[in-house]
Design goal:
0% helix; 6-stranded antiparallel beta sheet
């Protein structure tokens, strides 16, 4: 586990997914993709790492992902096959806010 900082760019160790951290908790957490911890942009993936079949729903370009508590938010900058997770909880795409009508 590590502290994730706002503005950090991370990539998946098992697929093409890349993200930028928009909001992060003030504690050590484990951000995963495909069930494997995400790595820095310049880091090498661990040998033999494979995507978990339970966490292979994929990510979508330009979507923001968050957990139920709203303590983390990441922006997908490159899509891939793995699902994003935080400490074992899968992240979900953030819904767009409804704008008021302009009667």
């Amino acid at each position: 586990m590590a502290e994730i900082k706002v503005g950090s760019r991370l990539r998946s160790a098992v697929c093409a997914t890349e993200v930028m951290v928009v909001a992060a908790p003030d504690r050590d957490v484990e951000l995963t993709c495909g069930g494997v911890p995400m790595i820095g942009m310049d880091d090498d993936p661990p040998p033999g790492a494979t995507i978990s079949s339970e966490e292979a729903k994929g990510t979508l370009l330009g979507k923001r992902y968050t957990n139920d508590a709203g303590e983390i938010e990441v922006l997908c900058t490159k899509p891939g096959d793995g699902s994003l997770g935080l400490d074992g909880e899968l992240l979900e795409p953030k819904e767009a806010k409804t704008l008021p009508s302009s009667d």
